[in-house]
Amino acid sequence: MELTTQIGESVTDALAYLGALATLGSRAAYFTFVAPLRGKPLRLQRAISQAMQVGVRALPILSLITFFIGLILALQSAYELRKFGALNFVASAVAISMTRELGPLITAIVVIGRSGSAFAAEIGTMKVTEEIDALETMAINPIHFLVTPKFLAMIVMLPCLTIWANSMGILGGALFGVAQADFTWVRYVRASLDALFLRDIVTGLVKSVMFGITITAVGCHEGLSTGAGAEQVGRSTTRAVVVSIFLVIVVDLVFTALFFFMSDR
Amino acid sequence: MGQTINAAMQSEAMISLRGLRVSYGEREILHGISFDVVHGETLVILGGSGSGKSTLLRTLVGLERPSSGEIWLKGKNIAAISAEEMDEIRKKIGMSFQGGALFGSMTVGENVALPLREHTKLEESTIEIILRLKLDQVGLSGFENYMPSQLSGGMKKRAAVARALAMDPEILFFDEPSAGLDPIIAAGVDQLILELKSAFHMTIIVVTHELASAFLIADRMVLIDKGNVVAIGSTEEMRASTQPRVRQFLDRIAEPEVSQELDYLQMLTEDNRLGR
Questions:
Q1: Which of residues 106-125 of A touch B (CB under 8 A)?
Q2: Cα–Cα distance measured from residue B214 to residue A229, given in angstroms and rounded to the nearest whole number
Q3: Is some CB atom of chain B closer than 8 A to the CB atom of A136?
């Protein structure tokens, strides 16, 4: 009895949490896509500065990480492929696993670490110092004011970052290909492009948009539900990172399965 | 009660509270508060820590929803209006938060100009002039390009008042205006409230536990204790009051020590019951 009650409570808590995320996400989407048509202009200035923060400033670290990931992928697949004397398949193996899976995922994880946590910390601090209350008493909707620019920045920048990450990953693979598998740079890149279908790239980008929505919703929700006191901000930030990583992987699984069964038919 | 509040009362009263109850979850903080705030007066809401005075203020500006009761503000019961209607009312009120609640990522000037930029279609040059005017009123001329982090506690409060004044509100709310300030700076903030009062005949509602400041700025006072109104009246009436709870608060007498074990147990269980 005890156990079933506990399980029931956790399930309802989890559903309530997802419901809160969905509400926040859809309100942010409303303010991004619908409200501007009804005369409530977007805060482009704020969205652009967020996009700089989320996107452009993430480029150096993301480039480095995905370059290494590409190199690792090449090494790992070569380990198996060379048994069959098929080292020239390294290019396609790296290209496909980067664009379909690791490009979007690694990008999302880097962005969670840099921006998802920052969203929770920024909004959480504002909650603690009553700045969110101040917005409300000034008749300024905190979601419109704070969440929407982040939302817009995320859904634009995450696919862009993912494309960049894919390219850097392929470049990392090429380093191995040129050094160890008798490729030239040009031939490696051509082999990669030949192996890719548009579908591979597009499914990766669709996922990255969904990741962006998830990261924004979790980060901002954690920030907005911060309790009183500075230590709560730290707690929100940690939770934002942990929950985002988990949910991004769940979303990844859902969409990967979806694409798998869609391409099957 | 419903709509039975007489019209005469409403036209004179800027705010009318009727049987206001507010709960956080299961726990009721305010147990039926009723009083009126007259147009143009400065009302001080006094009360100790945990008395519910801050909750009362938050409810008055629409940050908390009452579980029952009515709040008549500008002819509307804000306990039962839509978010859009509440936003319209909020454009007519100003609130100065305890810590100032200035936006840390914006300059003082941007903070003060924010409501104007959000809610009006004024030219940037006009906003600039209003901004200077408001900063001048609170004694912060020339500070528009400072970041809030560069200001002292007293200056932050003044900047917050300037922001609250930006939309020329009819009602101004203060949450603990002298909290965390040294006596001299706190006196300066009191002086500022008095100046606003005489210059604009605004309705001002101040929540505080600072007695000296309360008696200086108030026209009338409400003493809140454990979620109930204990006393309401002019400063003279309050000073002359013989009510034990009022005397205890004004004369700063500590809660009597509980010596008997049984009493202590009873106090604990009672508190527990309240806490539920």
A1: 125
A2: 28
A3: yes
Beta strands in B100-195 (DSSP E): 171-175
Answer whether B50 touches A (CB < 8 Å): no
**Residue position matching structure tokens 């956080």:** B24
- A138/B contact by beta carbon, under 8 A: yes
In Å, how far is A12's CA from the nearest CA of chain B?
Answer: 18
Query: How many other CB atoms sit within 10 Å of the CB of residue A113?
Result: 15
Q: Which residues contact A206 (CB under 8 A, 6 or more apart)?
A: A255
Residues in B touching A140 (Cβ below 8 Å): 114-115, 118
Q: What is the ipTM of this complex?
A: 0.84
Q: Is A73 exposed, middle or buried (0-12, 13-18, 19+ CB in 10 A)?
A: buried
In chain A, residues 45-74 whose CB comes closer than 8 Å to chain B: none
Nearest to A134 among B91, B93, B97 (CB): B97
Tokens describing residue A101? 């899976």
3-state secondary structure labels for all residues of B5-23: CCHHHHHHEEEEEEEEEEE
Helix, coil or strand: residue B55? helix
Give residue-wise pLDDT tens across range B220-265. Answer: 999 998 889 989 999 999 988 888 888 888 888 877 665 666 666 6
* Separation between Cα atoms, residue B129 and residue B131, nearest integer Å: 5
Flag if B98 and A130 touch (Cβ within 8 Å). yes
CB B31 within 8 A of CB B227: yes
Global pTM reads 0.86
